[in-house]
Design goal:
With about 130 residues, the protein is α+β, with helices and mostly antiparallel strands. The chain has helices spanning about 25-30, 80-95, 100-110, and strands spanning about 35-40, 55-65, 65-75. The radius of gyration is 15 Å and the shape is globular.
Length: about 130
């Protein structure tokens, strides 16, 4: 939620950033996540998962007024991976990280390049199963 004043009806269901986000930069950065990569950089510190290779099929943001929605589709996610991705992409919006740095962040495999967005607003929308 990007409104300047916190919306009490959305506070349990959204992360209130309280400022406008640069969706164009964030979507450009999210595009670098698409494909098969080792997502060690987006694994929670102390996470026990050995194999961090995942395939992301799509990732991007859409704006609807003061509500910005991030959707990501993949073959699996690490613990706190999506929250770390969103936090990192907010850092891209704020100019703390360049969109073009995402491939290097993935390659270096250093954990937690950005902050973990809070869990409010994180929803599992759909699970796809192979036939």
């Amino acid at each position: 939620y990007t409104g300047k004043t916190r919306d009490p009806f959305l506070s349990d269901f959204s992360y209130s950033v309280g400022r406008n986000l640069d969706i164009e930069k964030m979507n450009r950065a999210a595009g670098f996540l698409v494909g098969k990569h080792d997502f060690t950089a987006f694994k929670a510190v102390g996470g026990k998962t050995e194999d961090c290779v995942r395939t992301i099929f799509s990732a991007g943001f859409e704006e609807n007024g003061n509500v910005t929605v991030f959707s990501i589709v993949g073959d699996g996610f690490l613990y706190k991976m999506v929250r770390l991705i969103v936090g990192t992409l907010i850092d891209v919006s704020d100019g703390k990280i360049k969109a073009e740095d995402i491939p290097e962040i993935l390659k270096e495999k250093k954990q937690t390049p950005g902050f973990a967005a809070p869990p409010q607003g994180l929803f599992l929308y759909r699970v796809y199963y192979e036939d």
